[in-house]
Each structure stands twice: as C-alpha cells, then as structure tokens.
Amino acid sequence: MRNKMILDKIVKWTIASMLVVSFHGSLFSESDDDKVGSAAFKFLNIQTDARGASLGGLAAQATGASALFWNPAGIAGSGGIGFTAGMTQWLVETQVMNAGFVMPMMGGAVGVSLVSVNYGDMMKSGWAGTTEFVFEPNQGKFTASDMSLQASYGRNLSDKFSIGGTGKMLTQNIDDVSISGMAFDIGTQFNTGYRGIKMGAAISNFGPDIDSQAPEDAAYAEYPAMSLPMTFSFGVIGEAVPGLNAGLNILKQADMGQELIVNGEYNISLASLRFSYNLNNPQQNMAVGAGVNVAGISANFSMTMTKHFDSVMRFGIGYSL
Fold it and tell me: Strand, helix or coil at 17?
C-alpha cells in the first residue's frame, strides 16, 4: 500500500513536470538562432556555486543557502541560519563573487543573496580624428561590472513538496553607460521518499525586456529592447548504490541549445567527490569537484574543463546551524 502511494505521488509529480516542460517549450518557442546575442545580463547564466557547478546543476537537490543560486524551493527546509560565499575565476580574467544568507521566517524560509562580476580593465579602441579618421587600438582603459541583488522565499507545501521564488535587482556598468532591470525565478522540489529519488524544476531569469540604451538616432532604430537570459532547468537524482548519488539535469537557456548533463556524487565520511559530463556542450563538457563538511562548516572546490580557454575554477565556503 505504501509503495502504491509513493508511485501515485511520483506519477502526479511527473505529470506536473510535463506540464511545466510544455510551458517552458512555449516560452522558448523562438529558435536559438533568433535569440543569440540578444540577451541582456548574460552573466546570470554563469554558475557560481562550486558544488552545483561540479554536478552540472542542483535543481533537484539544492538545499540551504546554496539553493539561492539554483532553485529557491530548496531553501524551504532550512531549519536554521545558513550562509554561503564563493569565488569563480571565470574566462579571460573575469572574477565572479557570490554570497547568500538564509533563515527560517514567515512560515518558511527567507534569503538574500548577491552576485557580482568584475571584468577587470579593458583597452579602449575606436576612431580618432575629425577630418581623416584613423583607427587607434589603444585609447586608454575602461572597466565593466555586473551585479544582481536577490531576495528569496521558500515554503514546504507538504513533507515532500516545496516551492520558492526569487526577485532580482540587476545592474550593469560599461565605462560610463549603465542599465538596470528586474528578473524573477520560481522553482519546485519533490522528494519521493523512495531510494533517495528527488526531483526539481526551476524557471529562472524571466521578466520584462531591458531597454538597450542605444542612442536616439535613426541609425540605431533597428535595435529593439533586449530580453533576459531566461533559463529552464530540471533535475532528478537518486541513490545508485550506498554512498553514491547519480542524476540527470536538463538545462535550456533562451539563447542556447538544450543541454543534458549526467552527474554523480560519492560521499565518504565527511568528504564528497563529484563529477558531471555535459552531453551537448563541447565547449565546457566536463566538471569535477570535491568538498568537506565538518560540524556544519563546508568547503567546496570545482573545476570545469573548457575547450579553448583555461579551466574555470570555483571555490566556496558555507555554514549552517
């Protein structure tokens, strides 16, 4: 009887997930080619959390403060205060910092988080002169940065099912030009209670289009407002053998093709070893990582291999009561 009830719940959640997938298909109805290069705040698609990056995503099993960057439904089960912070050495000397804080409140859990991107100094180049234009490659330097300030809320609707949402205030600065906007995430998680099988889905970075800030000139009239880098993620994970969790993530960004990622996490006492392989992205197809957790204090490291650049390194620390 119990197994039948579990099976019924799995079927119901699967049907709900299929409806979400269908909804996501309508959201991404435009072809990938139509959206390439047209998304604003693309930094929102950078994976910042070390553990999640090594597993190719945490839609199904994100918990505590780290869930703020993957699936806000994961903060719902927070029984106490949690904190996380991390650094990503991104491509071409770009650094990404993230931090998050979560605590039980309002019948669920609330969290605040920050993502900050520093692109470093970049060389200016352009046309110079008034009568005879000459292209000069070095006209000083300029800086660029991105930031997302986020507030989240998650709540358990039952002992198996949780839901959560996030609101984001976005800013981007390039030299003396800046734009701002808002974005939202919504996610769900379901714990089947059978063999550690968990499922999760999230739609991230949706919201109103962003003004491109193009000059008010007829030559720029063809530049429309830019859309946000909306992303759909779905994950399922379960216990393959004692100590080893294996899973599958599906990732679809509005301006990219769909990606399938297989992963595994092996827990040895206080330590964990992690691995993921992206079946559809030859540019960044493999990631590995490790972590330790002692008395609520965790430290994580991950490395994502790239085809044409140096490997992406991520480091993170966390604490939970």
Answer: helix
Query: Token pair of 115, please?
Result: 């993502």
Distance CA 4, CA 1 (A): 5
Query: What residue numbers bound the domain in which 78 lies?
Result: 2-320
Average pLDDT of the residues of the chain = 86
| pTM, to two decimals | 0.85
- The DSSP H or E segment spanning 238 is strand 231-241
* β-strands 95-105, 82-89 pairing: antiparallel
Number of helices (H) and strands (E) in the chain: give both, helices first. Answer: 3, 16
45-54, 144-153, 159-168, 173-182: segment of lowest average pLDDT: 173-182
- Domain containing 276 — which CATH number? 2.40.160.60
Render pLDDT for 18-37 as a digit per residue (tens, 0 to 9): 445 444 544 554 444 455 55
Residue 61 DSSP class: T
For 206-228, the DSSP string reads E-S-B-----SSGGGTT--PBBP
- Two tokens at 51? 């553990």
Residue 114 contacts residue 147 (beta carbons within 8 Å): yes
Q: Which residues contact 224 (CB under 8 A, 6 or more apart)?
A: 209, 212
* pLDDT at residue 37, rounded to an integer: 52
Q: How far apart are CA 37 and CA 118, in angstroms?
A: 20
The total of structural domains in the chain comes to 1
DSSP 115-165: EEEEEEEEE--EEE-SSS-EEES-S-EEEEEEEEEEEEEEEESSSSEEEEE
Quote the DSSP letter at residue 6: H
Percent of the chain with pLDDT over 90: 62
Q: What is the dihedral of CA 105, 109, 112, 114, to 10 degrees?
A: 170
Q: Residues 25, 28, 31, 36: is their CA dihedral positive or negative?
A: negative
Q: pLDDT class for 165, splitting at 50, 70, 90?
A: very high
pLDDT one-digit tens code per residue, 176-200: 888 999 999 999 999 988 888 999 9
CA 237 to chain centre: 18
